Amino acid sequence: MEPRQLKSIRRWFEDYTSGYYRQCGKLHQLELKERHSRRVAENAGLLADDLDWSDSDRCLAVAAGLLHDIGRFPQYRDHGTFYDFKSVDHGDRGEQALREDFPKDLLTPKEFELIAMTIREHNKKDLPQLPPEDLAMLRIVKDSDKIDIYKVVREHIQRGEQDAIYPGLGPEGELSLPIIEGLLKDKKARYDQLRTLSDVLLFQLCWVHDMAHRQSTKLLWNRGDLEWLIDRIPSTPEVKPVISQVMEEISRATGI
After folding, report:
1. Is residue 31 part of a domain?
2. DSSP helix/strand/coil, 170
3. What is the domain-level CATH number for residue 52?
4. Quick one: 144 and 187 in the same domain?
5. Residue 139 is assigned to a structural domain of this protein
6. 97: burial class by Cβ within 10 Å (0-12, 13-18, 19+)?
7. Statement to judge: residues 195 and 244 lie in one domain
8. What pLDDT shows up at residue 182?
9. Cβ neighbours of residue 241 closer than 8 Å, sequence gap 6 or more
10. Residues 37 and 173: beta-carbon distance below 8 Å
11. Which of 31, 78, 182, 184 is deepest in the core (most CB within 10 A)?
């Protein structure tokens, strides 16, 4: 991908989000997703640089990061929620939006299908079977997405605005046993089992097991996001083994 293509994609994204603001008003939830998408694009560029990707592949990673959440906008317009299990899968909805709304002449057919795949698969629990170069692009987008979600969650909780991103959850301090059991068993849990804010924080902390690049975990540790989560989660006997697994992963990535 050429830089001029990336510039055109940025303009399209701005027009795309502006269209939803005209329909729905400039809602905080939609603004949150727009800013998130721009930061994910920035994270993808940082990781691509760290991996010594070519300029062309770096531009493609940035574009994929920018577009990864375009399904969030029609999701919120049509359903009033970002909870996939209560509405639609936003990855699938994003691929649909790309195929319906995106000007295909901005990309080669191969680039278009690659970005469509990253949009569709970025939020899925398991990685699909893909050629190595496609899998590398998907992994960089998934890491970049998670890196920014840590930031968004931390900032909202510190401002006392957690209801803006996780409405309807129970208070901190209570952890659901199915979440702990799932994380201990295979380091994963289901979104529809999250009942409290503490469930969400523990679930999010365990994303370090899914990071494709050590630099991603190192970046999160250096920013203080992981340590903040560990300090925030109730240190019960049931939770301590989960935290120990996380600390082992952090140690492998950072050398601490």
Report:
1. yes
2. strand
3. 1.10.3210.10
4. no
5. yes
6. buried
7. yes
8. 87
9. 184
10. no
11. 182
129-142 exposure pattern, b = at least 16 Cβ within 10 A, e = fewer: eeeeebbbbbbbbb
Are residues 93 and 64 located together in one domain of the fold? yes
pLDDT tens digit string along 57-96? 999 999 999 999 999 999 999 999 998 989 999 999 999 9
pTM: 0.89
Is 159 within the bounds of a domain? no
The C-alpha atoms of residue 14 and residue 16 are separated, in whole angstroms, by: 5
Please give the C-alpha separations between residue 234 and each of 6, 206, 217, 229, 242, in angstroms, as whole numbers: 44, 15, 22, 10, 12
DSSP helix, strand, coil percent of the chain (3-state; round to 5):
75, 0, 25
| Burial category of 78 from C-beta neighbours within 10 Å (exposed 0-12, middle 13-18, buried 19 and up) | exposed
Q: Which domain holds residue 28?
A: 3-149
Look at residues 83, 116, 149 and tell me which one is the last residue of a structural domain: 149
Task: State the total domains in the chain.
Answer: 2
Q: Are residues 137 and 176 in the same domain?
A: no
* Cβ pair 121, 91 in contact under 8 A: yes
Task: Evaluate whether 62 touches 44 at the Cβ level (below 8 Å).
Answer: yes
Radius of gyration of the chain (CA): 18
Q: Which helix (H) or strand (E) holds 46?
A: helix 28-50
pLDDT-wise least confident of 152-156, 167-171, 194-198: 167-171
Task: Answer whether residue 213 is part of any domain.
Answer: yes
Structure tokens at 219: 């970046």
Q: By the 8 A CB rule, do 3 and 57 touch?
A: no
Euclidean distance between CA atoms 48 and 42, whole angstroms:
10
Token code pair at residue 77: 């317009």
Angle (CA) 198-204-207 rounded to 5° is: 150
